[in-house]
Design goal:
- By secondary structure, the chain is mainly alpha-helical.
- Among the domains are: 32 residues, no CATH class; 122 residues, Tetratricopeptide repeat domain (Serine Threonine Protein Phosphatase 5, Tetratricopeptide repeat, Alpha Horseshoe), CATH 1.25.40; 56 residues, 434 Repressor (Amino-terminal Domain) (Orthogonal Bundle).
- Helices cover 58% and strands 1% of the residues.
- It has 15 helices and two strands.
- It comes from Populus tomentosa.
- Keywords: Repeat, TPR repeat.
Length: 414
């Protein structure tokens, strides 16, 4: 084993003895597990982490978020369900008649003059029976008249008026519909259907049909029925509009709460990300700001004189987050021809020949102070990404001396 690396290992062991908390570094988990597999008893400080800022911040964020959601749900629960009040209406109604449908005429029958005459005779008999209060007999005669002349709207409408007198509104509506199918301008058809609907409490439909009947052929009976029907129709319409408005307003409030909840959630996520970014930035004092990208994850365990496998020898409290990126292909021009084939030990794959004393870098006050200067660090990273960029920094009196000294350190003993 190389003597230099062996010396570094010894120094690392001494550092672990003096400060067991070093072993809490995630990058040294493998070493701690190895020691325990050999039966080593490690002190409690080798297991406990002394930094929990990020975890506690996240827990606090999660608690805050969990408190926001229930508040929205509580607001939704407080929204009372809309219960429609009873509507007070005036006017008498009857129970629906559930008799089998009455006999209707056959529209395919050819109606002759003789049939029309016979139909009129049957209707005359019905009117005579009706004047005597014989409603069932009147229905029979009108049914005969319809069979003889099924194309007559007036026959159906007349039978519908008799069913209304018999308080059979459903039968009257069937006859009125038949009359209106034959003649869509049948005033008597609209009148009889409107009156039958009023008997069933279908106030809005009744008002509509009675108004149509009045326009086609106004009479006093239609006007009298409308005076009873219209107030109820208006109350129903106002009632419906009122609750349609209430339901719409309730839906609008619910939609607005949902929009506010989404905005609050988005704002909370933004604040959380912002705090995490600030927290991450605040934990980077000491060491090289921004680090060398891509290399030693977790930084360097604090203050290890002489270095350690996988980290910088020497001691940089706070570590160098990020490390050097996977070797420095091409190296620094003029310092190490061919570059560093593999990078630094432990972080940069392949390792580097042991001809660089890193303690000289870490124990150099001027270099350590320069590592805290963002301008110098930016120049170092620029050169490490592309060694050809070295030329553009040579004219910078602040950066050039540091680059020259760094190249001298990397060159190692001649």
């Amino acid at each position: 084993m190389d003597a230099t690396k062996l010396e570094e290992l010894k120094q690392f062991i001494e550092e672990c003895k003096s400060s067991p908390s070093i072993l809490t570094d995630p990058s040294l988990l493998f070493f701690r597990d190895y020691l325990e597999s050999l039966g080593a008893k490690l002190p409690a400080s080798a297991h406990k982490k002394s930094y929990v800022v990020e975890e506690s911040d996240e827990e606090m964020e999660e608690k805050e978020e969990s408190q926001v959601e229930p508040q929205v749900e509580e607001e939704e629960e407080e929204e009372e369900e809309i219960i429609e009040s009873d509507l007070e209406l005036e006017g008498d109604t009857v129970d629906p008649d559930n008799d089998p449908p009455q006999k209707m005429g056959d529209p395919s029958v050819e109606v002759t003059e003789e049939c029309r005459d016979a139909s009129q005779e049957a209707k005359a008999k019905a009117m005579e029976a009706l004047s005597q209060g014989k409603l069932e007999e009147a229905i029979e005669h009108l049914t005969e008249a319809i069979s003889l002349n099924p194309s007559s709207a007036i026959m159906y409408a007349t039978r519908a008026t008799v069913y209304i007198k018999m308080k059979k509104p459903n039968a009257a509506i069937r006859d009125a519909n038949a009359a209106l199918e034959i003649n869509s301008d049948s005033a008597k058809g609209y009148k009889s259907r409107g009156m039958a609907q009023a008997m069933l409490g279908q106030w809005e439909d009744a008002a509509k049909d009675l108004h149509l009947a009045s326009k086609l052929d106004y009479d006093e009976e239609i006007s009298a029925v409308l005076k009873k029907v219209e107030p109820n129709a208006h109350r129903i319409e106002e009632h419906r509009r009122k609750y349609e408005r209430l339901h719409k307003e309730r839906g609008d409030r619910k939609a607005e709460r949902e929009r506010q909840r989404r905005r609050a959630k988005a704002q909370a996520e933004y604040e959380k990300a912002k705090k995490q970014e600030q927290s991450s930035s605040s934990r980077k004092p000491g060491g090289m700001p921004g680090g060398f990208p891509g290399g030693m994850p977790g930084g360097f365990p604090g203050g290890m004189p002489g270095g350690m496998p996988g980290g910088f020898p020497g001691g940089m409290p706070g570590g160098m987050p990020g490390g050097f990126p996977g070797g420095m292909p091409g190296g620094f021009p003029g310092a190490m021809p061919g570059g560093m084939p593999g990078g630094f030990p432990g972080a940069m794959p392949g390792g580097m020949p042991g001809n660089v004393d890193f303690s000289k870098i870490l124990n150099d006050p001027e270099l350590m102070a320069a590592f805290s200067d963002p301008e110098i660090m930016a120049a170092l990273q620029d050169v490490m990404k592309n060694p050809a960029n070295l030329a553009k920094h040579q004219a910078n009196p602040k950066v050039a001396p540091i680059l020259a000294k760094m190249m001298g350190k990397f060159a190692g003993p001649q």
